[in-house]
Fold each of these.
Amino acid sequence: MTRFLGEPDVAGYAALFGSTVVKAAVDDVLRDARACVVHDRRAVPAYDALLTGLRSRLAQVETESLVPALNGSGILLHTNLGRAPLAPEALEAMRTIGEGYSNLEFDLQAGVRHSRYARLGALLRSTTGAEDGLVVNNGAAAVLLVLDTFAKGREVIVSRNQLIEIGGGFRLPDVLARSGATLVEVGATNKVYVRDFERALTVDTALLLRSHTSNYRIEGFTADVAARDLAALGRRAGVPSVEDLGSGALVDLTSFGLPHERTVREAITDGVDMVVFSGDKLLGGPQAGIVAGGAASIARLRANPLLRALRVDKATLAALAATLRCYLEPQGHLRIPFYAMLATPVERLRERARALAARCDARGEIAAADIEAYAGGGAAPLAPVASAGLVVRTARKSAPEVASEMRAREPRVVARIAHDATIVDLRAIPEARDGDVATALVRALA
Ligand SMILES: *Cc1c(COP(=O)(O)O)cnc(C)c1O
């Protein structure tokens, strides 16, 4: 036992999880070895073999919990890697509110109960231009709440070119069915007109739904219904319109060289009654789902008992508020890591890539290269962001092996694989962590 605990990496695990967990793992490994000797009449394993067994057991224990990783995938808002990293002020707010008590559901002036759902109204008004806003657990929950409140047992008209499936099994027709609403599809896959919506209106129509086609494009012989026209039709017919924007940009992405991504404010200006978007995509905040829109519609959402099952936690509200406040100052959004990453000049990334290649490449296996990154999070799916990074090719290991070893231990780097090479994109990796990238690279190529 003492010999195992004297190994520096095993001692590292003991510092991370506590020595009880590590001792239990040692006991497991020794017990398995004894069983092999007794039952299978095998030779007593050597210390090194036992140590290898212990290491893989501890590595498994570690990755079952949440561990940090550097994102070298080149996808800035990667759902599998936790989407948006938080701004320093958001982290600070989570700490301040999280470490003690707050007025989460309490009116400090009157000394009576208050609604947590009213907390971010003012900030959402000033950042989106909407009359009011409401925050729930995530974007999917926000869509569900809108459908449940307005469309249960009634009809929702959706254009056939927007019946989306996004990641994680969120398929619009299924979500509609789950909420007890009837989907009324209109138009053709490539062409949809306002008159298609108009003809489908009945006394049972509850909502006109528009959805951001966040992961595909329909190109060629196409026609689409503008949100403005759909919202106007809804007002004429007395039917609320809702737009699932998905990523929910609050700033214009063209200032970062990306194609224009419809902002929440534009959707509100177009007259859409309720706009739904995520907190952890282009907004750059914590996981949350936001509905911004008309005061009467938001009030109806607030009155739905289902809200109780979708409610957000105090730390989320604190982080979201702090993130939204960044947008109220000129250039304040550049303090949000996602925008800081987008704003980094590609020349700076090239310099870092060259320095890393020079530092780690002992055998001519690592090259600095210009590559392409993507925003992710359903934003600008086809528009690359100029980036730079490292292309690793070695005759000694396959690209998946190199990538796997970069992920195996602290510091962990998630790379991508293309054309039989392991590629580490630097755009989503903070410059201060380049030393860790070097450590992971050298380890993987050892
Ligand atoms: C991402 C997305 C959602 C779901 O939002 P989550 O916050 O991931 O639950 C819904 N609709 C669209 C169009 C999206 O892009």
Note: The two ends are 28 Å apart (CA to CA).
Amino acid sequence: MSTAPIDLRSDTVTRPTLAMRRAMAEAEVGDDVLNEDPTVLKLQEKTAQLFGKEAALFVPSGTMANQIAVGVHTRPGDELVCDPSAHVYLWEGGGIARLWGVTSRTVDPAEGVLGLSDLRGKVRPDDSHYVRTRMISLENTHNRAGGRIHPITAIAEISGWARAHNLAMHLDGARILNAVVASGIPAAEWGRYFDTVSICYSKGLGAPVGSALVGSADVIHEAHRLRKVLGGGMRQTGVIAAAALHALEHHVDRLAEDHANARLLAAAVEETPGLALESGRVETNLVWIAVDPALGTARELAARLHDDGILVSALGPQVLRACTHLDVSRADVERAAGALRRAATLAHA
Ligand SMILES: *Cc1c(COP(=O)(O)O)cnc(C)c1O
């Protein structure tokens, strides 16, 4: 048995492949703050095209891409609307308020992800007592909702309504290509409902660093300024953009394997007494697991799995998350499924 643990904590743990490292070593570079890095320019053009947008901006992280989007679409005192488990609200250190002076209104989705019926009536009146509702942020796939795909029909309805109310639409598309591969709906089809989309190359796509924001030429021009303000202007960035380009060229279709592996893990969860899929089903590469207190806490179960060579994240008192990705094979997932069953049985011993 191999001694290296199987790391299912996140799809961010992937390491660049040899071919990716070669592409990085051979990248043509220039000063990207001066817009002179040919590899970055190529990546930005390819990414913009993928989403049917005019322009894209390479940034160090998905968090920076989302925060720049908030900065571009709002002024201090404006309001952003999202669901309470959205990454932009929950896991970005309060950047919406700290960086931009924007308030957040969280709206609970009735069914996992937001629909138009959740949002109707949530635009503040044009009255000096109120903040100005300015922006809607959605997430696809939705991490905390179990890696779910936000149905495109719901997105289309929300987008039409948002435009009628003069609200900007942002998509946190950290894992949008997982949604593209799982649904068969092209990136540009999702993109047309949004003013800006963020995408992470560093998740399941397997690049070591990097994200992008896509949008109109005007929006991305302003985003370039905000990236500088946040300290995200980098220089010979082609070295890392080459990894992202390699990922777009070679690691998109294979996301289907991650999804099949996640389903295998999900089946093991469903068969194991005391474990359940938190959101009822697995659609992409994230498996959120509800742990019955009879098996102990999520941390205790994660510790037993750790002893068995499997790393998962405890993300709530009774919640585990396991992610499949580029560095996890079918055999690894079969072993993880066995370890899950053993860990649950040990609790009863
Ligand atoms: C990972 C992630 C981000 C942020 O990406 P970082 O590169 O870690 O800053 C944003 N949104 C979602 C849904 C994510 O999963």
Note: The longest strand covers residues 132-139.
